[in-house]
Design brief:
By secondary structure, the protein is α/β, with parallel strands linked by helices. It contains 6 helices and 6 strands; from the N terminus they run βαβαβαααβββα. The two termini are 23 Å apart.
Amino acid sequence: MEAQPDHRVTPADDATGTAPPGPDTGPDVRTAARDLVARLTERGDTVAVAESLTGGLVVATLVGVPGASAVVRGGVVAYATPVKHTVLGVSSALLASNGAVDPEVARQMASGVRAALAVDGAPATWGISTTGVAGPDPQDGQPVGTVFVGIADADGAQAYELHLDGDRDAIRWATVSELLARMSSTIRARE
């Protein structure tokens, strides 16, 4: 299954480079997180998060929403490539041949975190993941701004390819925004 290509997102930098995006940088991630948590709550679904380049920003954004504890199982920051294998079950052969910045890695991370954060033997309804290159240097033969986000459920996993512009923080926050939007769209398509 190939990753779905995506448009170029160019968020503006804020004054410090560390604050979450505001209204001038595209979709408000806080609003997207509130909407996603509400939708998951209505459906009785749960979500588990596996993050690499975002380093915990996705799960932090989700748990910033009151009531998120009803739907967010937790998160795994698998920043080091070997952790993607040892904790999330990503194929070591895949990581060795393709590196961590790969659509299949994103799919396996999303599927793996569903199981890793199972409760009483039941995996999370959804697993979502991020892997990519925030910069400043290329990684695994991929240029800065190349990102794959994954979404998995019991029916399988999908990866989406993003090509993002900006500095490290802009790329990381744009990844959060894009993943939350993709997750919401995926749920809407299933309703």
